Amino acid sequence: MTYNPPPPGAAGPPPPLPGQAPRGPRPATVTMAAYVLVGEAVLLLLGAVVSLLAQDTIKEATDKYLDDQNLTSSSTNGTASQVFGIVFGLIFAAAFIGLALGVLRGANVARIIAWVVSGLALCCVGVSTAFSLAVISKYLPGGYLAYSYLVTFLELAGFVAIIVLLALPASNAYFRKPAAGY
Hints:
Helices cover about 75% and strands about 0% of the residues. By secondary structure, it is an all-alpha fold. It starts with about 25 loop residues before the first helix and ends in a 7-residue tail after the last helix.
């Protein structure tokens, strides 16, 4: 049995356009940023699963908080916001995987979008977690609270890592357009 290599152009990146220098090898910083983007997607998927599993616990904690504040409880509101959060998380997980693929491919637009999304998420994740957990933290079981803080820390560290890794000089050189010429 002999090994027949694939025909030219069947595997690997497309050849450079005429008059365009080939792109150099992908630096480890870009690969690591893509891995972190996939890690963020995994955390979002994990969050959706935990949200479904802890649905009753979260509802009880919210109801206790609302009772203590002499406010009326609405289970429809809680369920709707949970469904919205899960759908939103799944959409963002898919977007992070798409961004990771774009970053691995060397698409500068994917790098820019990853920067913007990571910067916005850095603000939103930190602020939303701080406020939502501060309000009902005394009503949640310790395990769920510890999980929430751990995932928030991992997400924040991941977003900082994505921003930094994609801004390093090696990454900049990789995303720069190759010089034209022969």
